[in-house]
Amino acid sequence: MTAALTVSGLVAGYGRIEALHGIDIELQPGRLVALVGANGAGKTTLLRTISGLIRARAGQVELLGDDITHAAPEKRVRAGLAQVLEGRQVFGPLSVQDNLRLGAYTQRTDVAGQIDAMYALFPVLKEKRLLAAGTLSGGQQQMLAMARALMSRPKVLLLDEPSMGLAPLLVREVFNVIERLKAQGIPILLVEQNAHAALSIADHGYVLETGRIALSGPARALLQDERVKAAYLGL
Ligand code: ATP
């Protein structure tokens, strides 16, 4: 079976700093993979290199078997890769509805139907559809950022720290949504500092330490791993 996403030997950095030293990860169809690690480990750099916002210095990124290592970011979006950036980047002055419409810029067919599907998945967004996105709470903006990414009907979804800055109750809500997306069969690479929450819903996990994969395995096994417990689960 062709993997949804394959990253091999990926090297990337900023100027003279190398932040990723050769990363190998694989996301199988329909799976939820968690990438956890401390502040500064390189999680955001990895996601941004996969989505093409940062240039790969070596290695390869394959989307559904196609080499996209050097493709422009918008070409990757058209090929089915969607990323929700860290920090809920919604267009504050625009309405919820218009934010969703913008998410459909790569496709012209049945935008209204897709918006309805998003309202079914995120009922709160339907209630607030005419309000400026900037007036939504942090959790609602996170939902909107995810819904907007889903408007492009992605084949692979990259999520960067969706729980960041959210109150515990909202964290649970956001993770519930991620589980529902997984149930719909969308392969997801979830980057999280909240290692416990992420590994609890993931199939497989990777632990990133200073630009290298330090550990990987079934998410359930990582939750039980003494090193993971000590370093990332606060146990
Ligand atoms: P966080 O959870 O804080 O986002 P992270 O695991 O996502 O952490 P990155 O943001 O990918 O880590 O950072 C990886 C390394 O690259 C760190 O050493 C960081 O200092 C460095 N770095 C990140 N962004 C830049 C930049 N724009 N310029 C120079 N160095 C950077």
Automatic annotation (TrEMBL):
One of its GO terms (biological process) is L-amino acid transport. Pfam families: ABC_tran (PF00005). It comes from the Bacteria. Keywords: Amino-acid transport, ATP-binding, Cell membrane, Membrane, Nucleotide-binding, Transport. Residues 5-235 form the ABC transporter domain. One of its GO terms (molecular function) is branched-chain amino acid transmembrane transporter activity. Belongs to the ABC transporter superfamily. This is ABC transporter ATP-binding protein. It comes from Aquincola agrisoli.
